[in-house]
Amino acid sequence: MQVLPGYPIGTLFLMLCWVGVMLYAGLLDSNPFSNPGRAGILVVSQLPLVFVLGTKNNVVGTLIGQGYERLNYLHRFVGRFLIFAINVHAIGLMYEFTSTSAWSTVIKIAHIQWGLVGLVCMDLLFLLSVSTFRQMFYHVFYASHVVCAIILLIATCFHNPTAQPYIFSAVAVYALDRLLRILKSRITSAHLHPVPELSMVRVQVHAVNGGWRAGQHVRIKVLSMGMGIYGWMEPHPFTIASVAENANGQGLTLMCKKAGDWTGKLYSLAQGSKDSESQMGKDVTVLVDGPYGGPGNTIVTSYSGAMLVTGGSGLTYALSLVEEFLQKGMQGTSSVLVAEFIWSVPSPSHLFPMIPIFTQLLDQAALANLSLRISVFYTRAVAEDALQGLDMLPPGLSLAPGRPRLEKTLGSVVERTCEAYTSSDGNGWPTGVFVGACGPPALTEEAGNTVRNFNRDRFHAVGGIEVQEENFSW
Predict the structure, then answer these.
(1) Last residue of a domain, one of 182, 209, 231
(2) DSSP 269-322
(3) With a threshold of 0.90, does the pTM exceed it?
(4) Do 145 and 129 contact (CB within 8 A), yes or no?
(5) Pick from 129, 151, 182: which residue ends a domain?
(6) pLDDT of the residue at 278
């Protein structure tokens, strides 16, 4: 159950518990105005935690099986609380100094000056990371975040030398993350191929053919001046659309939707030359960093059924999972007997370039003992001629107008899973249904609510239903 969009009860409970501990430590037998040093100590003690939650390779995520992107809300939450606490610390000291007319004297003291430097850095970290500013001026946000964080650590050491163990811990956390990111990075060649119908670029990295799980993502830099003066230095995250160690040797495949300045330049770069008389494309050098995220400790192929709900470029998330079902099914190591693949798009024209891929998946499903259905829904009204060529789709692939009816579809998946499990050679009970959702927040939230409101008797009959929501965010 979600109390607020994106914040289920468990998440809010965790956040409130942490705030309770911080308030207890900061206010017990202490007045912020008469003892402002307590708030400063509180800030210093939590700096390593902020750095841990802000790194791509963090120990908290490793322990609980969650990617850094799923813990970023905690990084923001803890950081904002520390902004509040450091300002309480500063205001308390300023009140004390001004009320005793000592301000003109103490402002000349070095450790007080370093404290003011740290305060300015903390406030800038907050102001320049506000969601609207971050999305409009990401370069400024990123650069300021790194610079201010470094200056903050230095200033804190000079402001209060007893804080150095905490500062060194934060530095060690950041240094370890950078080292791991270097070890997980690779510079190689990639082929860019534009897909005009989807306003996407398919990035094919043939040299990278293993080392990731379905549902994970990588961060890439396209090392070409065609991306602009700064664009070639920018890392951008994309969900992997292929399965690891594919028999066809297609390697790492990304589908990058044209949705902003950087992806627009990538699309233009992909159209810049022809790799044949009829096909557009371009070879470039890329830096691949990752993989990250994914299902964590969840073994998706251990479930008896699956429903994958995607919107737009969230398609890539489902493609890699379906390919994993098929690959493991052919090897006899997958328990998934039923899979429903739902793709919501604005126009039916988006289906055209995907028909060969969907047809191949449906053909392979029979060999992998997987009952696969692919349902495409388009949400905009179109003329009849827009549907020409889509009236003879292969069995298992359907196209319909409107939004997907997730409750009805989930019920069908549960029913089919129970029937398939009963008629198979399996013993015992079904091992549950996995629901994965990737796309706009409204779609993923609807998928989550569908699972949470699902009939409890049918929920238990299929062995439970687990949902994982992947939202588009920046």
Answers:
(1) 182
(2) HHTSSBSSSS-B-EEEEEEEEEEEESSTT--GGGSSEEEEEEEGGGHHHHHHHH
(3) no
(4) yes
(5) 182
(6) 47
